[in-house]
Amino acid sequence: MYPHLGRMLLKGRHVRSIQSLLRRRMPTFGNCDAPPPPPVKPPGPGDASLDGSCGGSNQFTCTNSTFGACCSSGNWCGDSSAHCGTACQSAFGTCAGESNVSSDGKCGSNGKICLGSGFGDCCSSSGWCGGAAEHCGTGCQTAFGNCTAGSGSGGGDSGGNAGTISTDGTCAGTKGLLCKGSIYGDCCSSSGYCGSSAAHCGPGCQSSFGNCATSGDVSTDGSCGKNGKTCKGSSFGDCCSSSGFCGGTTAHCGAGCQSGFGTCAAADNISTDGACGSNGKTCKESAFGDCCSASGFCGASTDHCGAGCQTNAGTCSGGASNNISTDGSCGKNGKLCKGTTFGDCCSSGGFCGASTDHCGTGCQASFGTCTTTGSDNISTDGSCGKNGKTCKGSTFGDCCSSGGFCGKSTDHCGPGCQTLFGTCTAGAGSISTDGACGKNGKTCKGSTFGDCCSSSGFCGKSTDHCGAGCQSSFGTCTTGAGSVSTDGSCGKNGKTCKGSTFGDCCSANGFCGKSSDHCGTGCQGSFGTCNGAADSLSKDGACGSRNGKTCVGAGFGTCCSSTGYCGSTGSHCGQGCQTGFSSGCFTRNIPTNDGTCGASKGGFTCAGGPFDNQCCSSVAGQRAITADLAVSGVLEDVTDQGETGRR
C-alpha cells in the first residue's frame, strides 16, 4: 500500500552498508576523493614509434625508436638493409643512401651513417665513425653503421681528427691531417704526403693517418684498397682496381688502378725496350710479349712465362688449374688452353683449338701446346705430346700414345693416340662424349653431336665439320657427287641429299626431302640445302655478336658465352651469357665470370662458375653483398638473409 516507504528503508540500509565498507577500505588504497589523473596523450604524427610502425597513416618516425632508425617501404622500423636501403622513407627515419654516408667522420645525430664512409663502419656513442673497439663496442649506434669490432679500416677514434682530411696533400705532422678520404690518396707516406703509390703505402707508411699495405695484408677475398688490403700475392690477381677489387685484367690494372695496393700497368709503365720487373716496367700489352722472365725480359716463350716469371710485371702461365680457359680465350688474359675442351693450342689471335691455325705458326707455346715442322721438334728421347715433341720421323715410331711415348704398336697408334704429335691408326679413337675429337683420339662416328670431326677438333654435321679439313680418321666426311643418297637416307651415313631424287634437304632424322620438316628446324646443312633459319646455327662453336650465329640447336651447348663460344658450363650460361643467341642462360643464381658478386653487383654468385667454392665477401665497398645476399648455398630470400647478416 505504501511502496515508497519500503524503497526509502532499503535505500537507508544500502547507504549505511556502503559507508561502512568505505571506512574499512579507504586506508588501504588511499584517498578516493582525489581527482583522476589527466588522460595519457596517444602518440601522433612525428612522434617516435612505440609499436614498430612508421610513415603511412600514423606518420610515426623511427628516429629514437627501439625498433631501429630506418622506416622501410612497408612502413616498419628496423636497421637491416631491407629497412635502410631501397625505398627507405627518409622522412620518417634514417636511410642508407649514398648521399647519407658520412663525409667528415661524424655520424648519428646528424643522420649520417658510417657504412662506406672510409673512416670505419661503426658509429660510436659520441657520434664518430671508426673501426676500433671504442667505436664498435659499448654505445655503438647500430642504426648508423655496423657494431662489430674491426669493421671497416678506420683505426683509433676519429674524434677531432675526423674532420681534418687533408686538402693539400700533406698529412700527419703538427696538424694531424688524414689521408683517408682525401683526393690525393688514402696512404700517408713517411715524409708526410698523401698518395696511393707503393712509396706512400709501403715501408714507412703512417697507419695512424691513413691506409697502409703490408705483406700481412694480402687480400683473401678479392677486395683491396679501401680496406687496407693489397692484391700483391693474392690468388685473384696482383692489380687493385679503382673500385677496390683484385684482378689481372685491363679493368683492374689499367686506368684507376691503385698502385699502393698492388701492381698497375699504366700506359706509361709498359716496357718499350723489352726490359721489365726491377725497372718498374710491365710486359702486359708490350710489343715483346706479355710475360716478364726471371731475368727481367719481356717475351711469350716458356722461358718468359714459366718458372720464375714475374707476375707483378706481366702475365704468367703458372699452370694452375684455375688458370685454364673456360671460354676458349687464351694468351693475353693469362689463360691456358692445355686441358680445355676447346683444344690444347693457343693461336696467335688468342683462341684455344686443335687445328693447324691454332697449333702452327704463331701458336703461343706459353699458353698451351704447339706443333712445328722443324726437325728440332722431333722427339729424341721417345717422349711426346705434353713436351711439344712429335714422333713423326723419330727413331722410336711415328705414333704418340695417350701416355706421351713414341712407338708403332697398337698401344701407341690405337685408342688415345695423339694425332697432333704423330701418326695414328684410322678410326683409332673411341666415341666422343663431349664433342671434342681428333687430337684427343676420340671419333665422332656414332656421337650425339654429329658424325663429322672438323679441322678444329669438334664433332658436328655442318659443312664446316664435314667439308674441307674434316678429319676422316675420326668420323664421316662428305666427298662430293659420289656421296649423293640413293635410298633417301642422309647425314649420319655420310650421304648428301643435294642432287638426290628425294629432295635436296636432309632432315634432323636423316631423311631426304623438300618439305618444311626436311628443310626447316634441325635440317642438316652439311648434307643438303636448308632454309635460312638453319644457316644461323653455329657451325664451329663460335657464336653471338662476333659472327651472328646461335648456339640453339647447334650441338655445342645451349649458351653463348660473353666471349662468343657455345657451351653449357657456368662460364657460358652465367654472367655475360648472350641471350639472343642462347636458350639456356641462367636467370637466377647467375655465376660470376669476373669475380664481382652480390646484390649490388647484379646479383651474381660465386657458385657454379670459375670462382666456384669461393665466398662472396662482406667487406667495406661490398657491404651490400652480405646484407642483401645469402652466399652459403642457394640465393634465397634476400631480405631475410640481409636482416640475419645485420644481426
Automatic annotation (TrEMBL):
Its cofactor is Co(2+). GO terms for molecular function: chitin binding; hydrolase activity; metal ion binding. This is Chitin-binding type-1 domain-containing protein. It comes from Verticillium longisporum. The keyword Protein biosynthesis does not apply. Residues 34-45 have a biased composition (Pro residues). SMART domains: ChtBD1 (SM00270). Keywords: Carbohydrate metabolism, Chitin-binding, Cobalt, Disulfide bond, Hydrolase, Metal-binding, Signal. The keyword Lipid metabolism does not apply. Disulfide bonds join C70-C84, C122-C136, C187-C201, C239-C253, C291-C305, C345-C359, C399-C413, C452-C466, C505-C519, C559-C573. InterPro entries: Chitin-bd_1, Endochitinase-like_sf. Residues 29-48 are annotated as: Disordered. Residues 51-97, 104-149, 168-214, 221-266, 273-318, 327-372, 381-426, 434-479, 487-532, 540-587 form the Chitin-binding type-1 domain.
